[in-house]
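Field notebook, page 454. I keep forgetting to write these up properly, so this time I am using the form the group agreed on. The chain and the ligand, adenosine-5'-triphosphate, are recorded exactly as supplied. Prediction of the bound pose follows.
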Amino acid sequence: MLKRFISKFKKNQPQDPLRAQIIPRDHHSISRTNISEYALKVLYRLKKEGYEGYLVGGGVRDLLLGQEPKDFDVVTDATPEQVRRLFNNSRLIGKRFKLVHVVFGREIIEVATFRGHHSNATGKQEAHQSESGMLLRDNVYGTIEEDAMRRDFTVNALYYNIHNFAVHSYAGGIDDIHNGQLRLIGDPATRYREDPVRMIRAVRFAAKLNFEIEAETAAPISELAPLLGEIPPARLFEEVLKLFMAGHALETFRLLEEYSLFEPLFPQTQQCLDTSDFYRQFIEQALINSDDRIRQGKTLTPAFLYAVFLWPPMLEQSKLLADKGMPPAPAMHQAASQVMSNQQARIAIPRRFITPLREIWDLQRRLIRRQAKFVESTASHPRFRAAYDFLLLREAVGESLNGSGNWWTKYQEENEIVPQHDPAPKKRKGNYRPRHRDRGSKSNGRSKGPRTRS
Ligand code: ATP
Ligand code: MG
């Protein structure tokens, strides 16, 4: 009787998160044919040298969901220095979160060492936290179990073992994959305080995977959202690109607003959204268009995205200046400078995107006025196409702009001056690839993420 009671009791107990649930190779859908040959090369080499080797995180998650992973990460018990010595084509990366990049042409396989508890640290060089609990250094090595507990979501604590091709799932990750749930490992508020970027990762994965954010994981977000203000603006630039340039921008935007996460990223824009639905429509239409572009395999430029997000506060500010008697052109110019400089305090937009952004805005007046002497130079401006798209967007949400969209469409057809289809993305020049990793506040020079056009 007691035995029966205990086994029933055990059944109802939450699983021990430190114990892996092991799914043997013939009980899951991951096949090596879907794994990058370079990731496999790295894994086989680790194995040959007697180390453990696992594919981990988003790569395993996406493969289990039948999606194509954006990148493949490897984790091992070898230290970064040991890994570095195994591969000639590798480099040590990062101070706050040390790891190794093994470079195969344009593909980089990131190899990390199992991370352990900070209580095992021997000094600030290994582990360091800010007063608010943010991780500033995370170089304590440990076991796979400890490593799993330091990952963000259960569905990211999945490990594919190169020794026997089994999947090791921690903290119920595999069940959450089946149930479509995003659940943070550990106490959600503590984990968000350690790294506030996890809040935007929650929203990003929810939109990308079409998963629910589990109630306890969702609960503290709105209250803790202002902590995003502590993230270095350069890291936020990278994070925001991942949010909006991966093909789920509209859903992501709606979730960000729902969880009060948009405000700390774009405070000036949020103010406009709070007072006018027109601006919301404008932004949503732009995001619908960019999601379409991604689906069609076209490129996107961060300059266009920021031109859209910052257009509402720029317009509002220039109206204020015009009300004070400033002529429209200088008012717009001054407003643009003010809005950009306020925004830079939150998100460090690199200079190479600011010039084109300003040009997209500046060209709006010329596109609408269509002065004969400027028509040709306008059409041959390097930012003409983006500015024209911007104009069409404004018209699509109901702005009356003198029939300019149609006029320029016809002009292009008659003069055959602009290709009707976007050219194939150029190889490297001008394409943007994020350089920062989104774990902790570490940046490590890794180059992966959405391909974009500048
Ligand atoms: P995607 O590549 O589709 O953006 P991902 O889950 O692979 O998603 P990465 O940024 O590539 O995300 O990170 C790889 C893995 O590293 C994650 O799956 C997770 O296990 C871990 N990780 C990344 N960022 C964090 C973080 N901020 N906190 C804890 N763990 C993280
Ligand atoms: Mg990844």
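OBSERVATIONS:
- The pocket of adenosine-5'-triphosphate (ligand 1) is lined by residues 57-58, 70-71, 73, 151-152, 156, 195, 197-198, 438-439 (CB under 6 Å).
- The first strand starts at residue 21 and ends at 23.
FOLLOW-UP: compare against the apo run.
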